[in-house]
Amino acid sequence: MKAGKILLIIGLIVVGAGAILSTRDIEPYADYALVIGAVLVVLSGSFRMRNK
User: Fold this and answer.
1) Does residue 52 have a pLDDT over 70?
2) Dihedral sign, CA of 52, 50, 46, 13?
3) What are the angstrom distances between the C-alpha of 5 and each of 27, 31, 45?
4) DSSP string of 1-52, one letter each residue
5) Reported pTM
6) What does the pLDDT read at residue 42?
7) Contact (CB, 8 A) for 17 and 34
8) φ and ψ at 23, to 5 degrees?
């Protein structure tokens, strides 16, 4: 697997975990998880575009 796809999968898992945490009353960690997941998804897009 290429680095872009690995980062995309990890980013989506982190975003999913942030969404689950946001349904609970764990607000600060949910916000951090959502932001980190979004950054990973954006980075994966840049890695995938660079490899093309």
Assistant:
1) no
2) positive
3) 28, 24, 9
4) --HHHHHHHHHHHHHHHHHHHHHTT-HHHHHHHHHHHHHHHHHHHHHHHHH-
5) 0.81
6) 92
7) no
8) -75, -25
Sequence letter at residue 43: L
Q: Residue 11, Cβ neighbours under 10 Å: how many? A: 20
CA atoms within 13 A on the CB side of 36: 13
Is residue 44 within 8 Å of 11, Cβ to Cβ?
Answer: yes
Q: How far apart are the first and last CA of the chain?
A: 14
Cα separation, 44 vs 38, whole angstroms: 10
pLDDT digits 0-9 by tens, 1-51: 788 888 889 999 999 999 988 888 777 888 898 999 999 999 888 887 877
Supply angle C-alpha 43, 11, 42, rounded to 5: 25
